[in-house]
Specification:
By secondary structure, this protein is of the alpha+beta class. The protein has a domain at about 15-125 and about 160-185 and about 220-245 and about 280-430. It contains nine helices and 14 strands. The protein has helices at about 15-30, 45, 215-220, 245-250, 365-370, 375-380, 390-395, 400-405, 415-425, and strands at about 35-40, 55-65, 65-85, 100-105, 110-120, 160-170, 175-185, 225, 230-240, 285-295, 300-305, 315-335, 350-360, 430. The strands form two sheets. Strands 4, 5, 6, 7, 11, 12, 13 and 14 form an eight-stranded antiparallel β-sheet that branches. Strands 1-2-3-10-9-8 form a six-stranded antiparallel β-sheet, with no helix packed on it. The N and C termini lie close together (about 10 Å).
């Protein structure tokens, strides 16, 4: 983590709480070589288009899913916040007329070098049967004798969404290459009667796989090693990000620290214990698209890292910048099949024109937590190369003023060149010279680090 603190030395409990809350908030916004981000409701316009609303970006060095000797850049992007996992009638699907992208940039300037586009099949096709209400499973008698999905795309998976992955090389005249098409997405976790391979004997969702062999069969069958060397996957997952966003925007309500646990003299439970904190995203799913890119196929650029009393790593590192983006066609037309002038199920849309970027996401909570309302939509529509126009929000963060007013702290409110160096340009900077992150059970794993044993 990288942070520049200037605090008063006071011993009051209120100051302790204020500093703790502030540290939690600010730390969430900081990046590292194993970087991550979260924006669930960052701007007014994208809030109205949830299917392309990016929530999280994770980028870190690892190893290929089926070859531990090959180093790769993992990029995992989450979209569609607050997706209800029990929406059994019609589960969430990727929008067929949107473009979901992973962008590789120069980490120092934000200049685009390469883009990977994920585009998905229509939500109105892809059915084997339309004379039923069931998108997944079949009601066969007796219950349990058939009807379960045992392989992706089998007869009992009535609906299957597919996708295409295209690589666009911006540094080669926007040369476009289709890397894979008709790639399957797995079914959602409908439940143990329909998708039993997701769940344990008690019907609870399995979690915690750290090897390919430990993954459920649906996920294994939809991880694709493309001929070009990349590996891709797309589908449903639980929202793994933790934050008390309701408390933060309730003028920094410190309930994340509060607990009524007995036996604690101050009435609080330390952070990290099961009874502490409020997770505003608990119980929700997201849609995920992910890619592994061989490190050997990536360029490497030098970039400066802010150094202070918390972070002692090298000040000059080498790697790439990463951000996610979503785009919609320039024109979307709604056709009225009935001709009665009212909206109904017979209407359909048709997209035309070039794609227009509607959101981008790189560093944690920059747009959601730092950028003012007047510029939130502007940032989403522009590339990182023009981010100097938004530098004032990093240099003079409003959240520092809020913390100081509410809790009596003395965080530096202006001239925050440390935050400017992190957020401008607004891309994740990944040091591709680091060793692969360690997974649980591997030597050197540290659950308290950002990813595995990576502390850089």
């Amino acid at each position: 983590m990288m942070i520049n603190h200037s605090l008063m030395q006071r011993s009051s409990r209120s100051l302790h709480v204020g500093i703790s809350v502030a540290c939690a908030i600010v730390a969430t916004m900081l990046g590292s070589s194993a970087a991550r981000a979260a924006n669930h409701s960052d701007a007014p316009l994208i809030k109205l288009d949830p299917q392309v609303n990016l929530t999280d970006v994770y980028a870190f060095v690892g190893t290929k899913s089926d070859n531990s000797n090959e180093r790769v850049l993992n990029v995992v992007v989450q979209v569609r916040p607050f997706s209800e996992p029990g929406d059994g009638a019609i589960f969430e699907r990727f929008s067929p007329d949107a473009r979901y992208s992973v962008n590789i940039t120069n980490p120092a300037t934000g200049a685009l070098l390469r883009r990977y586009d994920f585009q998905f099949s229509p939500v109105t096709s892809g059915y084997k049967r339309t004379n039923t209400v069931l998108s997944y499973g079949q009601a066969l008698a007796p219950l349990g004798a058939g009807g379960q999905i045992l392989n992706v795309g089998d007869e009992n998976q009535n609906y299957t969404q597919t996708y295409t992955v295209t690589r666009v090389d911006s540094d080669r005249g926007n040369r476009s290459t289709v890397l894979g098409s008709n790639l399957l997405t797995p079914p959602p976790n409908v439940g143990d009667r329909v998708t039993p391979l997701y769940n344990d004997a008690q019907g609870r969702a399995r979690s915690g796989a750290t090897t390919f062999a430990a993954l459920d069969l649906y996920t294994q069958q939809t991880i694709y090693n493309l001929p070009s060397g990349e590996t891709v996957w797309a589908g449903h997952r639980e929202d793994g990000f933790y934050s008390d966003i309701p408390g933060i925007f309730n003028l920094l309500d410190p309930r994340i620290l509060a607990s009524s646990a007995a036996g604690n003299p101050d009435g609080e439970t330390p952070l990290g214990t099961p009874s502490a904190g409020t997770d505003g995203f608990r119980g929700y799913n997201v849609l995920v698209y992910a890619i592994q890119i061989p490190i050997s196929d990536l360029p490497s650029f030098s970039y400066n890292v802010y150094n202070n009393a918390v972070y002692y790593g090298p000040q000059v590192q080498r790697g790439v910048g990463v951000y996610a983006s979503t785009a919609r066609p320039h024109v979307r037309l709604l056709f009225d099949r009935t001709g009665n002038g009212s909206s109904n199920d017979n209407d359909y849309t048709k997209a035309n024109g070039p794609f227009i970027q509607v959101q981008r996401l790189g560093n944690p909570i920059f747009n959601e937590g730092l950028v003012a309302l007047q510029d939130k939509d502007n940032l989403n529509a522009t590339p990182p190369t023009v981010d100097a126009r938004y530098a004032t929000y990093a240099l003079n963060p409003e959240i520092a003023r809020l913390v100081n007013r509410i809790y009596g702290t003395q965080f530096q409110e202006t001239g925050r060149t440390d935050l400017q160096s992190i957020f401008i340009p607004e891309v994740l900077r990944v040091n591709t010279e680091t060793e692969p992150v360690r997974l649980a059970g591997q030597p050197g794993f540290n659950r308290l680090s950002t990813f595995g044993g990576d502390r850089t």
